[in-house]
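Hey Z.,

So I finally got round to the S-adenosylmethionine thing we talked about over coffee. Here's the setup:
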Amino acid sequence: MDPSDPAYAGQKDYGKAMLAVYDWWVMGVMSRIAWKVDIPEMVEFYREHISTNHLDVGPGTGFLIDEADLPDDARVVLLDPNPNVLAHASKRLARLAPETVEADVLKPLPVEGPFDSACLANVLHCLPGPIEDKARAIEHIAAVLSPDGVLSGSTVLGDSADHNGIATSFLKAVNKRKAFDNLGDSVEGIRAILEASFEEVEVTDAGSMAYFVGRRPKAPLPPD
Ligand SMILES: C[S@@+](CC[C@H](N)C(=O)[O-])C[C@H]1O[C@@H](n2cnc3c(N)ncnc32)[C@H](O)[C@@H]1O
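And the result:
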């Protein structure tokens, strides 16, 4: 991704060294001491919404896909602007022979759909704000889902959430570096961008984080 792109900062930290410790740091340490989320619950949420014809946007290490117990013949497409992520996750998920697509979710997606499920797990907080600008990610995913397709995901909320001191300090630091751009992200804002692209929307407030589901994608609006 071009370093002048506003989305560059949100994906640039995922180098080989970061990916090697990511599961321990994010799923083990940060989830417990900062976000207060239960990882088995996140895995269960993810399993509930994944299908055997799946698009995963921002797969990171591939941890959640690996935990989903998909059959070996499932179609899995991994989309991420960071080639390190695609290399790491596709190696981990080799038994599923995932397709990899180096692309930015804020641009129309160069993938062959339609997909029955898509996941945007822990990516929205990395995208450049305000939340209205993140709507493009949701629109682009909705456009490649089947009529019964489901988008699910989770994200760290901004200032509106009831964060503890560790979460507040961490968010301040990562927002300053633009690795996260989520201080304005709220449950209401996330609901609004999902409702613009899906007929049925659920957003669940889970303390520092929100879980979301969009079902029945709306027909895309004609280009301006
Ligand atoms: C916090 S990690 C989440 C990884 C994984 N989904 C999980 O929950 O463990 C954020 C992921 O989003 C990706 N990402 C960041 N900006 C992106 C963009 N503009 N388009 C698509 N993916 C992006 C990063 O490269 C990284 O893989």
